[in-house]
């Protein structure tokens, strides 16, 4: 049987067909099924609550949209859908697509992205680290609640890990936290958070 390649999508086609479906994102024109599970969603939901409370406590003009896509590069057919994203409402007027679609193209609109690691952990630890840094997103959290990441990323023995990436120039400096350790976020200095607080029961 001859191999039939999958038809690649443009960002516009992806937005038209899948913008409301949180299961998918787009990478180089290829539809990616993120395969969310119940425990994955529990971790993402708990993180969103904690971050939302920190935003309110600090009286910041930021918010967490219910659904949002990031189009990191105009010349690439890629649209990311972070598990949690924090936007700065004061600069959204500069976003070219925001009034029609919840799509972010400018890094300055984004304060934080959070990815909860699933079976496609390579993307969270490698490619998205580069994409989000190039966009200029100040902080990126990688929450690997099952310890799925490679040893090069989370160490040995593999265990649940919370990685805070802070932008330094055009690259992220990374700090890892494990069970029982207080997570330090430069973006939210008053936030009291441990990996254990967001683990599924």
Automatic annotation (TrEMBL):
It comes from the Bacteria. The keyword Nuclease applies. Keywords: Endonuclease, Hydrolase, Nuclease. InterPro entries: Nuclease_put_TT1808, Restrct_endonuc-II-like, Uma2. The keyword Transcription regulation does not apply. This is Uma2 family endonuclease. Pfam families: Uma2 (PF05685).
């Amino acid at each position: 049987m001859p191999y039939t390649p999958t038809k690649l999508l443009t960002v516009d086609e992806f937005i038209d067909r899948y913008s409301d479906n949180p299961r998918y994102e787009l990478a180089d024109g290829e539809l990616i099924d993120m395969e969310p599970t119940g425990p994955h969603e529990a971790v993402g939901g708990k993180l969103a609550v904690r971050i939302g409370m920190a935003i309110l406590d600090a009286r910041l003009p930021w918010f967490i949209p219910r659904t949002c896509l990031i189009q990191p590069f105009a010349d690439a057919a890629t649209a990311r859908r972070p598990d949690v994203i924090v936007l700065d409402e004061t600069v959204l007027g500069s976003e070219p697509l925001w009034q029609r679609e919840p799509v972010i193209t400018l890094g300055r609109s984004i304060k934080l992205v959070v990815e909860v690691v699933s079976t496609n952990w390579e993307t969270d630890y490698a490619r998205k680290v580069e994409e989000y840094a190039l966009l200029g997103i100040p902080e990126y959290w990688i929450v690997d609640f099952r310890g799925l990441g490679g040893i090069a990323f989370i160490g040995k023995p593999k265990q649940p890990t919370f990685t805070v990436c802070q932008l330094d120039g055009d690259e992220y400096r990374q700090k890892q936290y494990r069970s029982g350790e207080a997570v330090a976020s430069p973006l939210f200095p008053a936030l009291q958070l441990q990996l254990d607080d967001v683990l599924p029961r």
